[in-house]
Amino acid sequence: MSEMIGELLGVGHQYDEGPEIFKGVSFCIEKGSFRFITGLSGSGKSSLLKILYLGLKPKWGSVRLFGEDTFQIKPTLLPFLRQKIGVVFQEFNLLDHLTIIDNVSLPLRVRGVDIKRSYKHAGELLEWVGLGDCLKSYPPSLSGGQKQRAAIARAIITRPQLLLADEPTGNVDDEMATKLLCLFEELNKTGTAVLITTHNQRILKKFPYPQLALREGTVLQLPVEKKAA
Amino acid sequence: MNKDQDLPLRNDIAARFVPKIIILMVYLGTLCSTFTFFMIHSTLLWEEKLATHLSIEIPFFSDSSSNDLQTQVTDLLQKTPGINKVEVVSKTEMKTLFNSLLGEGTSVDAFSLPAIVDVSLNKRDAFNVENLEMRLKNISPLIQLIDHRLWQSQVSNLLFTTTSLALFLTFLILCSTLVTTFFATRTSLLIHRKIVEVLSLIGATPSYIAKQFQRNTFKQGFFASSIGAFLAFLTFLGIYFLFEKAGHTFVVTTSFFFEVLAIFILAPFITSFFMMLSARRAVMKALCS
Fold first, then answer.
1. Does the beta-carbon distance from A97 to B200 stay under 8 Å?
2. C-beta atoms surrounding B149 within 10 Å
3. Minimal Cα–Cα distance from B175 to chain A, Å?
4. Which of A138, A160, A164, A162 is nearest to A150 (CA)?
5. Which structural domain, as residue segments, surrounds residue B113?
6. Beta partners for A30?
7. Number of compact structural domains in chain B
8. ipTM strictly over 0.90?
């Protein structure tokens, strides 16, 4: 039996007094697993991811990550739990006052890696995602696709144990989307569990991994689709 | 890139007014401390003088007996062990004293003033004042010995009150500086909430985020308090020259000068250090709660 790094049990959420987005959501994240979370817009994919990266506290249920109950954990230990997770935010969340290389090397710096080494790693990674000539550029001067790639580079630079990506291919063309998914696959082979939200059917066909479908407020485990030619 | 640039704090609108407040606070604080030390040194000098000085009043007689009495008294004093110096207050000094009290042009000769003898003792504890008073009364029962010890406790009270008040004022100034820093940091945290949130989500500890605010606050505080201390030093020099011009001494002792110098040098370090702690407390309180 593979090692479990995350577990959601009967998780439900609603914003303020609004309708329930989902309820009774339960699933496990195994070490080295690769999954997609699918669902229509507004089905709660991003909220579910937010709960997993500890950016949102669900109203019901329990969430265990890396053996810790996230409801019981001391606030001082939360950053160390977050350091095991890499996140690609839907809105990128790049810091506009920092250059791209500073943005990408930031997760290494907050973990205490010296600036020179963090720059070297960030430079190599940015080169790989095709942003080698934008190292000193600032986020506002980049296109949506470039920002997306920078956000992905920032999420994977620390080789996290769990990678959560919210629509990571939403702003890039098919060729780049395939390239980025291949990057996630490479990372997955090194033991990182990957959880990606998407509604891109071409990607789902091309990369036939298990899917968690959010439908009518609950989650369904869908069978693996056949790989597209 | 510098270590403290993850957050754009340098041109923070929330902290724009802080340096001006710090300049004013440090200016007031250092001047308040300077005057505290001035009061302490002046009062201690006064107290020391009171403890080692006696005054003797020789009554005025129209015939020459006043002069005889004065000679007998000074002879007795000079022969008494434990007395360091005997000095008869001159007519000129009396005139200066009276003119300051009754106005220029007052003739001292018009008054039947007693002669005053200022006696300086070697050590107060070893001197028998009662015995001296008895021997003076033997010369003339009208001779008065004035023991300034009676004033000593009042001077001590004055010293305690002024020092406590000045220290309390300095403490209040420091507290208001720290409270200002605390709330400016809280406002800054709110302004940069989005960036702080991103930093937290990518694993930055509250301590890492607090360090960014600390470094910025220390730099800002040190720069502003240096200006405040410098302005206070200029004011100190101004007061010194005004005192000198008026014929008084402001730098009452050498140690007072060095203590004041230490205040001006240390004020920026102490202020910025406490400001840094205040900024850290503000961030840690907000992020760890």
1. no
2. 12
3. 29
4. A138
5. 53-147
6. A4
7. 2
8. no
